[in-house]
Write a structure and sequence with these properties.
The chain folds into 2 domains: 40-316, Glycosyl hydrolase domain, family 43 (Tachylectin-2, Chain A); 329-659, Methylamine Dehydrogenase, Chain H (7 Propeller). It contains no helices and 51 strands.
């Protein structure tokens, strides 16, 4: 659920500390509390299990709740009319709760009459948000958020059969600043309600809690979690859900790492969670956790989806690595041919496809290239044009690389490093040496490594103290004067930081704050004017913003709005004439948008749709430039098929979308945990 009032994001420069410099092998401090028994909580693939649409039109679900009664599961949730692709509906129009039941959480689900409809006569209700249902004393209790003339309120209705609901006559249980998304749990003999709120002191997004002995009378509020973001951004502490397991409490909140993202935080204390307890991520919106007594499941729903989704919840001993920023990845090889790499959908082995003729745009068949791999590889291009491929082993166990020979063939795979949190970011130094930057497992530190000499097959040792911790894989680009600049998202998305070489090939400046809260890893590219442009997605995915250098290799302009709702930071690519082109994907993958700079380094045109009719994409597209200067866009559908669109001439218009081969590839969203 989102408050109706929304403000621009990434507009300020809130105070925060820099990324701490950590060694790659740093030990826990003496006396530190033991870690939870499960180091990472995630989810397997989500399956679509229920569509609430009716013959009268398409409907979506949002915040919801699942409860088992006798031999059936019951679903209650926000329901509303679907909006055009890529657009968010009006949350103030959410005025009823859907109701369905099924013998199993995976269905088949039977739709019932909506369970509750807004009643303006009941203390000024104006909307119905985020129901949560529990059973106690033979009665079902539905807690929900309802705004009105008196402000945000948490209301209560009860039922004995889950079909007929009666509001308590005394009115709202309590009111708050933006109180919504209640969830109730039994803790140490008391009822505890967790809910979304803003702190009264500094306006930060928090998870508040209250206690009760009878579910009717509630204590004054406390704060269980405080995020670094403030009311100037959309909330990232929504849909709180707390689960106790093995003596540890796990708080699920979102939207984080995009609209369809939920972070998990672990604590021994059910009333005190913080960013240091980061314990996982589930790629779903408004996630609820249920168990059938044998297995744990995560449910998800949201504005940009078509109903309810369910996935097995995973309690893992090690954190998974992140996916690469691009899927697929593409670059020019030693012969100037565009080469595309992707993951095979069946076994996660690496696949390669090579452009054979630039005029007719003919390509080789997909060829095996090694693997399996834990993520889409990343690419570097040596000074003599030879491609170098960097691959992450399954589970992030190790990095490997493979180098192209001058004759266009390939050397063998070789080990490149120990366990890593993602495939590395790669750039070329001012003297031609490749440098790579990779997070350690779980993002605890960022390590750096560079070639001994330009094009060399030997590399210096890893520098494990380059930075960290990080909340996503870093990105890197070269300034016009050759100095490298690295950008990283802080844990929890509280800010973007950057670090740069003070002179070409020289020493590095300390980490410095570059931007306020962001939803996912940024992207960075240099345009034809020589200036770098950084793009980032705001928390919750409400919008994408860009920031560019005032002069080549110089300072930075302010953040500017770029796109509306986005699933991740947009892709960037320079035209042959130096203008950048940008491509953004909406949450849910139904809409691609496109904008182009009017002049190199200048303002952006209004842009427009870039969709492939009838296709839903799984990830932000990859944009790569071939030897003629034409941009090729590659986008993976949710079914694992790559579609491509190519400029008809350098810096020109676009040909229609076409299928890019018949091989199924892994439809992994960029930057997501690599399950």
């Amino acid at each position: 659920m989102h408050p109706i009032s929304r403000r621009r994001l990434l507009q300020g420069s809130a105070a925060a500390g820099t990324l701490a410099l950590l060694g790659a092998g740093g030990a826990a401090p003496a006396g530190a509390a033991p870690p939870p028994p499960h180091q990472w909580i995630g989810a397997g693939p989500f399956a679509h299990v229920y569509d609430p649409s009716t013959p009268g039109g398409q409907r979506y679900l949002n915040d919801h709740t699942l409860i088992k009664a006798a031999d059936r599961w019951h679903l209650f949730g926000i329901v509303g009319a679907g909006a055009p692709p890529g657009q968010a509906p009006d949350s103030s129009a959410e005025v009823s709760f859907a109701h369905a039941s099924a013998p199993d959480p995976y269905g088949p689900w039977t739709t019932h009459t909506d369970a509750l409809t807004v009643d303006p006569a009941y203390f000024g209700e104006e909307h119905l948000w985020a129901p949560h249902v529990i059973e106690a004393g033979g009665t079902y209790w539905m807690f929900y958020a309802a705004g009105g003339r008196g402000g945000a309120a948490i209301n209560l209705a009860t039922s004995t059969d889950l079909f007929t609901w009666t509001r308590v006559p005394t009115g709202p249980l309590f009111r708050g600043r933006v109180a919504r998304d209640p969830m109730v749990l039994r803790v140490a003999g008391q009822w505890v309600m967790y809910y979304t709120e803003l702190s009264g002191q500094d306006g930060r997004h928090v998870v508040a809690f209250r206690r009760s002995d009878d579910l009717l009378h509630w204590s004054e509020p406390g704060i269980a979690f405080t995020d670094a973001t403030t009311a100037a951004t959309l909330s990232v502490t929504e849909s709180p859900f707390v689960v106790e397991r093995d003596g540890w409490y796990h708080l699920f909140i979102g939207p984080r790492n995009g609209y369809d993202g939920t972070d998990v935080f672990a604590s021994r204390n059910p009333f005190a969670f913080d960013l240091d307890g980061y314990a996982g991520h589930v790629p779903g919106h408004a996630v609820e956790v249920v168990t059938d007594g044998q297995q744990w499941h995560a449910s998800a729903a949201g504005w940009f989806q078509q109903g309810l989704y369910l996935a097995p919840l995973q309690w893992r001993d090690t954190p998974p690595p992140w996916q690469s920023i691009d899927n697929p990845v593409a670059g020019l090889d030693v012969d100037g041919r565009l080469t595309v790499f992707a993951l095979d959908a069946s076994d996660r082995s690496l696949l390669r496809r090579v452009q054979l003729d630039q005029e007719s745009d003919t390509w080789s068949s997909w060829e095996p290239f090694g693997g399996p791999a834990g993520a889409v590889p990343t690419l570097g291009r040596n000074t003599n044009g030879r491609l170098e491929v960097f691959s992450l082993a399954p589970g992030g166990a190790a990095l490997h690389h493979r180098v192209q020979r001058p004759d266009g063939g390939w050397g063998d795979w070789e080990e490149f490093g120990g366990a890593a949190g993602s495939a590395p970011a790669v750039a070329r130094n001012a003297d031609g040496r490749l440098e790579v930057f990779a997070p350690g497992p779980g993002g605890t530190a960022v390590a750096r490594r560079r070639q001994r000499s330009p094009g060399s097959l030997t590399w210096d040792a890893w520098d494990g103290g380059f930075g960290g911790p990080t909340g996503a894989p870093p990105v890197v680009a070269a300034n016009a004067d050759g100095r490298l600049e690295v950008f990283a998202l802080s844990p929890g998305g509280s800010g973007i930081y950057h670090r740069w070489q003070e002179t070409p090939n020289g020493v590095w400046a300390q980490w410095s704050r570059f931007g306020t809260a962001a939803g996912t890893a940024p992207r960075v590219t240099r345009d034809g004017s020589g200036r770098l442009t950084v793009v980032a997605m705001a928390p919750s995915g409400l919008a994408a913003y860009y920031r560019r250098q005032t002069v080549p290799s110089g300072g930075w302009d302010d953040w500017q709005a770029m796109f509306g709702w986005t699933a991740a930071a947009p892709a960037l690519a320079p035209d042959a004439d130096g203008r950048l082109e940008a491509f953004a994907l909406s949450p849910g993958g139904a809409r691609l948008s496109h904008r182009r700079q009017v002049t190199p380094g200048g303002s952006w045109d209004p842009g427009g749709e870039f969709d492939a009719p009838g296709v839903r994409f799984a990830a932000v597209p990859t944009a790569a430039v071939d030897a003629t200067g034409r941009i090729h866009v590659f986008a993976v559908t949710t079914e694992g098929r790559i579609h491509t669109r190519v400029q008809d001439r350098p810096s020109g218009g676009w040909r229609p979308w076409t299928a890019f081969g018949d091989r199924a590839v892994a439809p992994v969203p960029a930057g997501s945990p690599a399950y």
